[in-house]
């Protein structure tokens, strides 16, 4: 995250070398920390506990969310609706709020698309695999 802000993609050769390596190491630390503390946040209440439960829920769908975000603008009609929305929002809200609203909607659409993709494609195939090749 921070490496991408320091060395923006396409503007610095360091993002693809040092930046991605730093990101890899940071995510490795997150995975190591989670494996050493598997119950972290499980019993937490309040806003922090709710945020941790939401992240855990999203973790179940993380791969399909990743796939959905990558193809979102490739879905027929989405790009033209997106441009029309941005034009209208820019006129009503201004530049900065429109930028953040666009990012928020992209995040929400990616999550919703990933959950839908999981239920429509991934889970039925996993059930079929379990029937054909039981563990």
| Estimated radius of gyration | 19 Å
User: Strand pairing plus helix content: what structural class?
Assistant: mainly alpha
The helical percent reads over 70%
Task: Tell me the strand percentage band.
Answer: under 5%
What is the rounded distance between the termini? 38 Å
The biggest sheet, with number of strands, parallel, antiparallel or mixed sense and barrel status, is: none
Give the overall average pLDDT. Answer: 85
**Quaternary state, please?**
single chain
Shape: extended
**Can you count the beta strands?**
0
H/E element sequence: HHHHHH
Number of helical runs? 6
Q: pLDDT under 50 segments (min length 5)?
A: none
Could you please describe the fold and organization of this structure?
With 135 residues, the chain is mainly alpha-helical. Helix content is 79%, strand content 0%. It contains 6 helices and no strands. The chain has helices at 2-6, 14-36, 46-60, 62-71, 78-93, 95-132. α4 crosses α6 and α5 packs antiparallel against α6. The longest helix has 38 residues, at 95-132. The chain is extended. The mean pLDDT is 85.
Structure in a nutshell:
The protein is mainly alpha-helical. 79% of the residues lie in helices and 0% in strands. It has helices spanning 2-6, 14-36, 46-60, 62-71, 78-93, 95-132.
């Amino acid at each position: 995250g921070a490496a991408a802000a320091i060395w923006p993609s396409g503007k610095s050769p360091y993002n693809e070398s040092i930046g991605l390596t730093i990101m890899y190491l940071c995510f490795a630390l997150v995975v190591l920390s989670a494996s050493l503390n598997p119950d972290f946040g499980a019993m937490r209440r309040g806003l922090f506990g709710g945020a941790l439960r939401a992240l855990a829920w999203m973790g179940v769908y993380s791969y399909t969310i990743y796939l959905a975000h990558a193809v979102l603008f490739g879905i027929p009609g989405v790009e033209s609706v997106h441009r029309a929305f941005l034009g209208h929002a820019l006129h009503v809200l201004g530049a900065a709020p429109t930028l953040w609203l666009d990012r928020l909607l992209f995040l929400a659409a990616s999550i919703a698309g990933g959950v839908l993709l999981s239920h429509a494609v991934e889970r039925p195939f996993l059930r079929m695999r379990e029937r054909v090749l039981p563990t």
